[in-house]
Amino acid sequence: MANKREDYISWDEYFMGVAKLSGLRSKDPNTQVGCCIVSQDNKILSMGYNGLPSGCSDDEFPWQREGEDPLNTKYVYTVHSELNAILNYRGGSLEGAKLYVSLFPCNECAKAIIQSGIKEVIYDSNKYDGTTSVQASMRMFDAAGVRYHAYHRTERTVMIEL
Ligand SMILES: Nc1nc(=O)n([C@H]2C[C@H](O)[C@@H](COP(=O)(O)O)O2)cc1CO
Ligand SMILES: [Zn+2]
């Protein structure tokens, strides 16, 4: 009888991989973020990436980071990957779920994460560590009992033919 494959991807690699694949859908020229929400028993519940709300054209709204008028920057329009993943879920409660995200959540997403009942956040990059937003997220997560920890990258890279 054949033995089982041994080089299959781990749960963590699977969920962070799905989060990063989702991020490839982002139209943001500077930062693409992907998110994958998973139940306590490792079922994928939802996914999301940073983008504009439905009906707001990717070609008509700005993708600029800076501008004299904030209305001409992306920041007032984009929905973050984490909020999109929470809002994309149509199945009921996210109580006790885990959230995999390629970039540490901002303070606004932290509020939504806490209020939706998600209890664990696994992030890859934390390139905005030390900012007011990240500090506020950590303070709220700590107070609300939401655990957060960095994803431990493995040696694996995956090439998918599409
Ligand atoms: N956790 C996050 N999830 C996200 O989806 N985003 C999105 C919002 C913007 O579209 C982009 C950040 O743009 P920039 O400031 O790095 O050019 O990533 C940002 C963060 C960081 O807090
Ligand atoms: Zn956010």
Automatic annotation (TrEMBL):
Keyword Metal-binding assigned: yes
Listed GO CC annotations: cytoplasm
Span of domain CMP/dCMP-type deaminase: 10-148
The entry's keywords: Hydrolase, Metal-binding, Nucleotide biosynthesis, Zinc
Keyword NADP: no
Residues holding Zn(2+): 80, 106, 109
Cofactor(s) of this protein: Zn(2+)
The organism's place on the tree of life at top rank: Bacteria
CDD domains: deoxycytidylate_deaminase
GO biological process: nucleotide biosynthetic process; pyrimidine nucleotide metabolic process
Catalytic residue list: 82
One function term, GO molecular function aspect: dCMP deaminase activity
Family affiliation: Belongs to the cytidine and deoxycytidylate deaminase family.
Protein name: Cytidine deaminase
Species assigned in the record: Mediterraneibacter butyricigenes
